[in-house]
Design goal:
Number of domains: 1
CATH topology: BH3618-like
Strand content: 25-35%
CATH class: Mainly Beta
Radius of gyration: 15 Å
Order of helices and strands: EEEEEEHEEEEE
Helix content: under 10%
Distance between the termini: 40 Å
Shape: globular
Largest sheet: 9 strands, antiparallel
CATH architecture: Roll
Structural class: mainly beta
Number of strands: 11
Amino acid sequence: MRKIQTRFGEIEYDPENLLHFPAGMIGFPTLHHFIVMPNKKEGPLFWIQSIDDADIAFVLTDPSNFFLEYKVIPDTSERNLLQIEEEDECFTLSVVTVPPDQKITVNLAAPILFSPKTNRAIQVILEKTDYKSKTPLPG
C-alpha cells in the first residue's frame, strides 16, 4: 500500500488497483494514474484522484443515468488502447463540472471509455455529434 496527501486528506491506495489513462486526459496529458475515491454519499457522482498530481481530481458519472439514449461504443483503435476485445465490457463515463452557480454540466462531447478488465481508460472526442462539452444536467 502507498499513501498520497490530497484535498481529501491522506489516502492509502494499492498500486495494483490504479486506473491507468495511457494518453492522459484532455488538457492533462501527463496524468496517467488515478484512484477511484470511495463514495461517501449515495448517488451517481464519484471522484477520481490523480496520483501523478495530488492537486488534481475529477468528478465523474455514468451519463446514461441522465441521458438514457447516450451510448459510445469503442472503435478498433480505442479497444487497442484499452487492451480489450470487441466482446469485452466497456463503460462510458463523463466528466462533471460544478461551477459556483451550481448549474451542473456533463461533458458528453469527450467521454471517458473505461475497461474494468484492464483498468485502463481513455478520453475520446466525439466527432460529428451534437453533444456538447457543457451539457446541463437534467433536473
